[in-house]
Design a protein that fits this description.
This protein is of the alpha/beta class and 380 residues long. The protein folds into two domains: 107 residues, Enolase-like, N-terminal domain (Enolase-like, domain 1), CATH 3.30.390; 254 residues, TIM Barrel (Alpha-Beta Barrel). The protein is 38% helix and 19% strand. It has 13 helices and 15 strands. An eight-stranded parallel β-barrel has the order 4-5-6-7-8-9-10-11, surrounded by four helices. α1 crosses α2, α6 packs parallel to α7 and α7 runs parallel beside α8. The model has no long low-confidence stretch (mean pLDDT 96).
Length: 380
């Protein structure tokens, strides 16, 4: 079997949903969704495709490493690694279809057939940051069947910010952030897990002040309280609060995660397979973390196709914590119509891992065509 062509399209969803189809000379094709970063299609077309045509799609790890070698200095992260990650996922889809097994079987087998989700609700209802809006949003997540939700607490109190660039938090910001969390917790009680994301915006001192304010509300985790590149700073925050500290969304490949894991500078990892190298690389990162008894959550800002790919990975990882569902993408009412699956993917706050060959799902052509970005076709 040989790769013959790579096609791409963009559907206008909550982000630009970028899809690839890798075709073979035996009629099988593999699907994948790319991390939504500008230029990813151009990287595949101008840099990667020439190295893939005529190659064996079943030789996934050799091809992955070959693409890294062909893009020296570019594939440590960013657009190039996102492009390579997408191609890697499509190759797993082809291999699973060729062998007649789900992708999770190729990743070592499933520990579970459904994956616990946390719903990333973003901010309050209507993207407002008031105590009422946060309380209402928490109730929505609970009433939709989720047992865990995540709020973005950064920029929730910007009206009290004294300096937008110094990584500091004012007393007014801390007071408001605490009031928002108090409202959300009061609205849903102790039975719903709540976590918050800071997107790496704060310094160590103020991150610890924020953690102290939030600790009484029994958070599931606090994500990226400081920039993740400074491992020593992350370690100080981790050591200074009882709230589990989660990070990794902005790190790439094993090289980027290894110092964080080996120094145990956080309590749990947040891995995005679509940006860090694909399913096999993400699995290796999770396995390394498991040596230190460190759980892993999986980050997602993708459509249901990308979620299905991540679910196969999550099924095959021993130290799984949760998988992110971009719940704030519910402003796209047709988003679940974009995918064809054998049954419901979301039930009772869990993602059902597809059981068909490969990824076990396909894109719905009619839905995709109805929402294509102008200038694109559905892989024609």
């Amino acid at each position: 079997m040989k790769i013959t062509e790579i096609k791409a399209t963009i559907v206008e969803g909550s982000y630009p949903w970028v899809y690839f189809r890798v075709l073979t000379d035996e009629g099988l094709y593999g699907l994948a969704e790319a991390y939504p970063v500008r230029g990813v299609i151009e990287v595949v077309q101008r840099q990667l495709e020439e190295h893939l045509i005529g190659r064996d799609p079943l030789a996934i790890e050799p091809l992955y490493n070959y693409l890294l070698e062909r893009t020296p200095g570019q594939s440590t992260g960013g657009t190039t690694l996102a492009a390579i990650s997408a191609i890697e996922v499509a190759l797993w889809d082809i291999k699973g279809k060729a062998l007649g097994v789900p992708v999770y079987q190729l990743l070592g087998g499933a520990y579970r057939d459904r994956v616990r989700l946390y719903a990333d609700v973003g901010h309050g209802t209507h993207m407002e940051d008031t105590t009422q809006a946060w309380a209402d949003r928490a109730r929505e997540g609970r009433d939709d069947g989720f047992a865990a939700i995540k709020f973005d607490i950064d920029h929730s109190a910007d009206e009290h910010n004294l300096d937008p660039v110094n990584r500091g938090l004012s007393l007014g910001e801390l007071d408001k952030m605490e009031s928002l969390m108090a409202a959300a917790r009061e609205a849903v009680g102790p039975g719903l897990d709540i976590c918050v994301d800071c997107h790496g915006l704060y310094n160590v001192r103020d991150a610890l002040l924020l953690a102290e304010r939030l600790a009484p509300y029994n958070l599931m985790f606090l994500e990226d309280p400081v920039p993740p590149e400074n491992i020593e700073a992350m370690a100080k925050v981790t050591a200074g609060t009882p709230i589990p500290i989660c990070t990794g969304e902005f790190l790439h490949r094993r090289d980027g995660f290894r110092p964080l894991i080996e120094s145990q500078a956080c309590d749990m990892l947040h891995i995005d397979a679509a940006s860090t190298g694909g399913l096999w690389e993400a699995k290796k990162i999770a396995d390394l973390a498991d040596l230190y008894y460190m759980p892993c959550a999986f980050h997602n800002i993708v459509s249901p196709l990308g979620l299905a790919a991540t679910a196969h990975l999550a099924a095959a990882v021993r130290n799984l914590h949760t998988m992110e569902l971009p719940y704030h993408a519910d402003q796209v009412p047709w988003r679940w119509d974009i995918i064809q699956a054998d049954g419901p993917l979301i039930e009772d706050g869990y993602f059902n891992v597809p059981q068909g060959p490969g990824l076990g799902v396909d894109l719905d052509a009619d839905t995709a065509r109805a929402h294509l970005r102008p200038g694109y076709t559905f892989f024609e």
